[in-house]
């Protein structure tokens, strides 16, 4: 059904109902699976993209997907996101939460038995969270009554499925829903807009019947296990482009046009039948590919968000800053750009009136170290460091600036053409090995060196009691990772760093929550977000390695676009770090690794 036609039908329904009329949705509901039974039950056929407004990037992701990926421990308990979960073999319970004084409905709750998900639809008019806030499988939802139809808007949704054969919905998708009750039947209509993988809104519906006897199965426990014992922990099952042998089985078995099963917005409309009957058949589906970064909504230049425990995020457009506060003082991971120093200091002062004791740099780049001088002076540091007779005791209680020793060495010896780094901006204390331990504000803190990743001086900072990891630029959510070859970075090192994050992080329930990860750039994440990024990087590495084995040159690899299924979200044709620059760095990194063996 087209979005325009759905809007007309809903508008007609609203006009026919008094404005004060509201349906009562509370109760237990059992799904009626007469709609799309084959897809919702056993699951769709591989290569069946019929009737979906997908683009070329979505097709390649699905073509590359292997069901074996679901055997990885981190994928076994992944939840169907809110855009899909109502189509599963679920039982649904709905109830209202009311203010005890006014009896105003504050929220409408949904308990969905599939993966034991509790969803909150806020009815009190609260705004949606910051773009830097964590995403969840159920997203953040607000609702309002339009006559007797409950209309819900949802954002902050984790990545999920469009169809369970590899077609994905990105974590930038949003959804509008309509809950419509007719007697003992509840109709749920969803309209999903995904700027990454679909070219038109995707409209779906499903029905539920009131379950008076409450016969539903309300638990769906899941505990990951090692399903395949002879596989490396870091392997990501997938098919290289053109290598999936199962993609034509659906069209062959059901004698459906191979071009039609590839999907695309044009296949959703009756006019497409004429194209199927035309001489030579229909043209290939349009790619719907969009180049360049996705547009961002207007947001403050700097935002402060609580993460977990006594750890906070100061989020800026140019990078993230992590702050830990407590009775002993303030610890800051990275300082942002020099231009934002005053605003960052103001944000730190609002979080705590205690002195700044530690600054930790995760690498040497200006988006992480540009504010070092301003924050160091705020912490009492001076241009000359006078050491008293007690080893390591600086004169007075002043801030310590920590980093891996490789950061100090590169700051001391800038590349030709690069400016000198002021002494006060350089680390005053470094570590050489794989880690350094601190105990500050009642919390164990580990500085973990990740060799040859984004650079050769990368540090991840693990706040163990708060269960938060500040990852630096090993992990970002708004671009492909920057691989700084000149400063010792490598593609494999980035992947190793992502796998290390997966080893450290433990989800709370069904791949959600638990350990939170603050990326170098972008929103607050958990293990599942790192997992999807790790999978992407591993798949891209394997594709480029395969091209290198075939003798392809760098220009040929770029022309083959090994990142094209991820480009709509992470790629860019302009700016400081383009897709071409990433592919070139990845290629040269892998060639160098191959030559060194």
What key attributes describe this structure?
15 helices, Lipocalin, Metallo-beta-lactamase, Chain A, seven-stranded mixed β-sheet, 597 residues, alpha+beta, nine-stranded mixed beta barrel
Beta-strand percentage range? 15-25%
Q: What is the CATH-assigned architecture of the largest domain?
A: 4-Layer Sandwich
Could you state the CATH homologous superfamily of the largest domain? Ribonuclease Z/Hydroxyacylglutathione hydrolase-like
Give helix % range: 10-25%
Largest sheet: 9 strands, mixed, barrel
Total number of domains: 2
**Broad CATH class of the largest domain:** Alpha Beta
Strand order of the largest sheet: 1-2-3-4-5-6-9-10-11
Assign an overall shape: globular
Radius of gyration: 26 Å
| Structural class by SSE content | alpha+beta
Quote the distance from N terminus to C terminus: 56 Å
Summarize the topology.
Elements: H1 3-15, E1 27-32, H2 37-40, H3 56-64, H4 73-76, E2 92-98, E3 105-112, E4 117-122, E5 140-146, E6 149-155, E7 160-163, E8 167-169, E9 174-182, E10 185-193, E11 202-210, H5 249-254, H6 272-277, E12 302-308, E13 311-316, E14 319-326, E15 329-333, H7 341-351, E16 356-360, H8 366-369, H9 372-378, E17 400-404, H10 405-412, E18 429-431, E19 435-440, E20 443-450, E21 458-463, E22 468-472, H11 491-504, E23 516-519, H12 527-549, H13 554-560, H14 567-570, H15 579-596
Parallel strand pairs: 4-5, 15-16, 16-17, 17-18, 22-23
Antiparallel strand pairs: 1-2, 1-11, 2-3, 3-4, 5-6, 6-9, 7-8, 9-10, 10-11, 12-13, 13-14, 14-15, 19-20, 20-21, 21-22
Helix pairs in contact: 11-12, 12-15
